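Q: What would this complex look like in 3D?
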Amino acid sequence: MLMLKMFFQAVAIVALAPLVQGFIQWCKAHLQNRRGPAPWQPYLTLFKLLSKDMVIARTASWLTGVAPFACFGAAFAVAGLAPVAPEPVGGVADLFLIVYLFGLSRFIMALAGLDTGNSFAGMGSSREMYLAVLVEPAFLLAILAAAGAAGATELGVMASDAGAHPFTLPYVLSAVAFFIVMIAECGRIPVDNPDTHLELTMFQEAMLLEYSGRYLALLQWSIYVRQLVMIILFAELFFPWNWTSMIPAELFWMVCKVFVLGLLLAIAETSTAKMRLFRLPNFLAASGLLSLLALVAR
Amino acid sequence: MSRVEPFFLFQSTIGLLVAGSLLAIVTSWRPTIANWISHGLAAAGCIVMIILAWKIFGQSQPEHFFVGRWLHSGVVTFRIDALAAFFLLLLGIVGAASAIYAIGYTTEHYSPRYFILPTLFNLFLLSLFLVVTASHIGVFLIVWELMTLTSLFLILYEYEHSANIRAGFVYVVMTHIGTAFIIGAFFILAKSAGSLSFQMLGGTALTEQSRNLVFVFAFIGFGTKAGIIPLHIWLPKAHPAAPSHVSALLSGVMLKMAIYGMCRFYLEFLGVGPTWWGVLVMSFGILSAFMGVLYALMENDIKRLLAYSSLENMGVILLGIGAGMVYASNHQTLLAGLAWSAALYHVFNHAIFKSLLFMGAGSVVRAVGSREMDTMGGLIHRMPYTAMVFLVGSAAISALPPLNGFVSEWMTLQALFFLPTAIPGLAGKMFGAFLFITLGMTAAIVAACFVKTFGITFLARPRTKKAENAKEASWVSIFPMAALALACIGLGAWPPFLLQLTNRIIGSYAGVSTEGLFQQEWRGTVFQADPAFGILSVNSVVVLVSIGCLIAVILYFLQGKPLKEIQEVWACGIVPTYRNQYTSMGFSKPVRWAFRWVLRTQRERIVDENENRYVGRKLAYHQTIHYIFDEAFYNPIQHWILRRANYVKRLQAGSVQLYVGYILIVTIVVLVWSSRN
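A: Here is my prediction, written as structure tokens for the whole assembly.
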């Protein structure tokens, strides 16, 4: 039963992830006084890419071919574990598991970036692993504040505890901390810029530089899925407004929250400028400090 | 099948290993024969060890083997209990793998003195075997020393390189300092227990002070052998110096002997201690973990990188041990059980993937002829099988689910997560959070480190001619690596197998308990230590990832089979060469920059500006990092000793009369001393 729920949840999240990405882009375009593409544009792009042939680098090994499938698989697993209407007891999803599954797709993508010997892709891999060094502790710490209050790292327990104590000081502090982590993990301004391939912003996009066609579609899609899962984590743990494990109501509120958070991300992205690579430690240290405050305030 | 006596297995292990070392000498005139016979016997001995360990796990009582009577000091026995059997199992698996690997790998060492290598290898395995089984202080110290010496000779096998001699020297000095502390710890225990037998040492009535002293001595003594920072300086020098199949044993098993010693002392002999013991162990654990991996990432020498990464793993193990001690002293027996399980699980994991990685590195170094990663590249095309197993090892050590590294990392994180329940107040919260995030950061650096190792070594274009013409290792070498890679996957996807063994060990000691701690449910492995609990659902993840991959395949083929056009790498219009690729040093640059306050990086750039200022300049770039422990701690000590030695030199003036005078003075002093009453 639980397995079935996880499966359908994963399918739903995978299906909706491009829409959320499109929505954020749409909001951003409107905030910047542009018309921009429609929110469903990512579907069209993915569909187009999925029908295209591919150009493969001469130096590429089998790793280039395996990486998109592995990344998609990992993203699918994360989507299945994401806490949508979780059972307060007897769940499956553990927080560390999700953090390390994110690590798994990052590991694979960084290797795929190095596979062809493309210097830009190598730069992307190097920077992405550097970013991980900064993000992962901030991620764990932000969540520790919430998990510490709940007394377990199982997501269902954490979500129900957050629902029982909505918007108390520790949760608010760690929410801000987690928001910073979310920006970094989704590869958005001020950490990375998902819209360009410019050298300055070469993180995730740079690692995909040698990819085209169907492989690219799968990788892009898995990036969208990871973004949506981050948003859902935020919505469930730090935005516990009207939290319930009743499925229809919870689903409705969840969708609303996801779109509100998408809008927030777009606003955050529009109102800040890209940060220098070596300023990132300070940015993520701010997140870490907020989490520490949350721990103290508990 | 008739019942095979454990004592028979014990004897046959010793017999096989002794035969292996002797036959290598006998057949020294034909290296090929010496290689096959000697390493074959070593592998057989290791397989017997595995069977022996398995038999001990099957029975409820530890096995005692009476060997002889030692003058004045009681009965010499060997004993294999669950703890020893666990380390025996690990030794058997890693030993057998590296012995088989050696058959293919050591062919490049064929020379008139080749026979020394398998002889010492067998003796080294024998000494490791005896260290685990000895249960008498005298015997233990002798075989402990035997282990140090055989490994020293193995490290010095390629003595032509002066760096190796230096490595051996540092190794010997450091481990002897460690051994002195171990002897001290044993001495205090034995004096109070009135026996040299391990069975009598447990739970002896020590005063508070001497108990603390034993703890500290054992920690320094075994910590030196484990290479915890700041006692680590020998490790990154010594481990890479040995031939790679020996490096695999050094990192995979010999370091674990130190953990074995700590387990004996902290679980069995000393029992539950005060909280600060655990806090101390964890503090050094996190220091080793973080600094070890940071140095590993900065390293460009593949074997030295792996050696530094061993420091990190020993740190993670110490975190588990320390947390276990803290919980035990706070009477949280189940959480203590969880933490100790995490430590032991990681002991096993590290043995497996580190030996796998060392073997893989050995094959690569052999094929390329250099340990510098910046001379490699593109080996995935030439050495596909080695690349595949190395990738599994890299992913496992980076603690990626669903491989075995993740299981122990998860358990360690859980053990740290509940730390505030054992240490009350803000201090506990902050200490827990500090350990927690540092471990998280460490894990991320490990991932960066092994992306670099695999990416620079195996991917992209070859950087040298030798890398271009590299040959795949022989199947005898690949087979044991593949077996270890399978073990990485198996221990990751099915944790209960190893957990039932660790439960057996931990459950029998005071202060820790594993009673109903782990339950295997369909959704994963659950640990339940009221009110703490957690769920490790690796199996669900395996199912989900497979479904996800399947969906990806469906999406991929949804609109027919795509055409793949092979083209040059895109580099803004030029055809890039290997010089356009990221290098090992370049890859770690951002992290080096972020942590320059610990690493004390110094770079030196020499630009020849005599020619054209913009194109075709000659450019040299050096990057050095300063090892703060060496510079702040060891170098001053070394200088101090050398300066004092200069004064002592005056005593040795070279005149015989003076020496006769010394002898006279000493004789008089001794006479006066002995006739004092």
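A: To summarize the key features: Chain A has eleven helices and one strand. Residues 27 and 266 of chain A are 6 Å apart (CA to CA).
Q: Very helpful, thank you.
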